[in-house]
Fold each of these.
Amino acid sequence: MLRNKANTAMIRLHLHPERHLVSRIGWLRAAVLGANDGIVSTASLIIGVAAAAAKPGDILIAGVAGLVAGAMSMAAGEYVSASSQSDTERADLAREQAEIAGDVAAEIHELAGIYMKRGVDSATADTVARQLMAKDALAAHAHDELGISEMTTARPIQAALTSAATFTAGAALPLAIVIFAPAPWLPAPWLVVIEAIASLLFLALLGAVGARAGGAPVWVATIRVTFWGALAMALTAGIGLLVGTAV
Ligand SMILES: [Zn+2]
């Protein structure tokens, strides 16, 4: 019976290979962060300018400028950060390559030591290290010694484009409210209220979608994202009011 169960479990595993969510986390994190940033910063900017009793045309200009500036800043930031990670990885790999070329025996010993620390006996660890290094010595050391794999490798251009695109998609939502809300007939205070409510709904939706895709608890993520968005908007609205009355 037990054996049978194990067999069916194995067959099921074989038929439906488990899709690990961890492999999605890199781009998912970047996409959710970009869209979240786009919504929060653009909505806050619009609310701040609108609270200072600006004209509808000025509010729209501020929103568009915020979108372009934010997308460029996200792209540049991601590019620089991913590039420096990529430089470090390349330097690590070059040093590892030199070490392997210099003293193979020491490197086999080093790799075997890593497997022994994980609980493998010394004879097996030595065999595994030798076999892995016979296939691709650098890949074996990159993966098990440096923790660098295909999945974790930094991709600067991809990171920059993803961030800019998702920021723009996020920023387009609060901007659409300014364009499509009947701004000329609508007094500024109402635009602030509509913008805030709509943007919080967008944020809640984004938090829920991101959590679902990442397999995380939906309510926690939704509340987290909405809370920080609400805080940012409340702060800029307050500062907009202050500056608006001062000017
Ligand atoms: Zn090594």
Amino acid sequence: MNRPSRVEHPYDIVLFGATGFVGTLTAEYLAAHAPDGLRWAVAGRSRDRLERLRERLVGAGRAAEVGVLEADVSDPVSLRALAGHARVLATTVGPYLTYGEELVAACADAGTDYLDLSGEPEFVDLMYVRHDTRARETGARLVHACGFDSIPHDLGAYFTVAQLPEGVPLTVDGFVRAEGMFSGGTFASALNQFSRGPRMLAAARDRRRHEPRLLGRRATAPAGAPRYAGEVGAWALPLPTIDPQVVVRSARALERYGPDFRYRHYAAVRRLPFAVGGVAAAGAVFAAAQLPPARRWLSGRLQPGDGPSAERRAKSWFSVRFVGEGGGQRVFTEVAGGDPGYDETAKMFAESALSLAFDDLPATAGQVTTAVAMGDALIERLRKAGITFRVAAGR
Ligand SMILES: NC(=O)c1ccc[n+]([C@@H]2O[C@H](COP(=O)([O-])OP(=O)(O)OC[C@H]3O[C@@H](n4cnc5c(N)ncnc54)[C@H](OP(=O)(O)O)[C@@H]3O)[C@@H](O)[C@H]2O)c1
């Protein structure tokens, strides 16, 4: 393993896609919270837009110095150069299935730590099959889903497990409540993934063939069934996002999750009509995504770069309640914060990049989850940044 040193690389962190919606919020967060001496750069395909962003950050006195690097996903040489400039490369350039692979490959080859905001299961599975081995050889940590997908759920399950006895079978249920709006980039990524059901399943099967078997332990994420969950006072609807997959990967990697770990992931809805309406709306978007004309019409509703206003984001929030059980104990925990998709995602993304760059972390390499790569150090950072992780009272 040959981790890049500060001497060999001009930048600690390079933020690619810095001129997009979440990219700009992440750049603003880094500028406002960068530790002294952070060497970082914004990267993207338009030098003009990057220079304007830099002027705004530096001009507002929010950053002493920020580099500017030009790169385009259609130019693999520019991506290789980008990977060679950074110890940690954080990219918001999505949909990742469309734009992401070359940069993962470049980072795996260069031994550069890579993080993204992908909530696209097919992309994450393909990257495991194609680039995990190379990243392990070079020491690169490839950490996907470093935003609302999947940090509150991955670190929330990790935090819940830490409250339960060791060495016994454990079950954790996560109940997500949130209010917020989509950006154009998120909507495009979701539509793209919805339209690729069979390819997503094929990538998951291929991954299972490549993953080493878990010997003597079990970690599963059954879908669960819709039910009234008295323990959180809400209707619970199974939520088939990437989050339960990420939680199970953490459980597979970390002995602390015990010999037999089960995680179920739900949307929690207080009133039954909202639960029925939510399922119908999700089903309608999923069905429309299967038909190219309907998909084109839907994707035209929100353009890349569009996203909720600061006022709208200020009213948005999320709360994930966890109920953990094992060894005769039951524990209730919560992870909560503000606008999930953008303000808090930018915070989680930037803090993950800083954690990979500067924290004293366990030795890991290859495709790793946020809990495995950063665990307690990232929880500590997010708490300081205003995201709640707490043991809650039961109902
Ligand atoms: N994990 C989560 O919870 C979470 C939350 C929010 C968003 N996301 C994901 O994050 C991603 C970005 O979302 P967003 O709303 O910020 O999208 P966006 O505003 O459309 O930004 C996309 C970025 O990609 C850049 N880009 C596009 N084509 C490129 C190319 N050929 N070469 C280089 N850069 C290129 C764009 O550059 P220009 O600025 O030059 O156009 C822009 O910076 C999406 O995949 C979304 O699903 C995830």
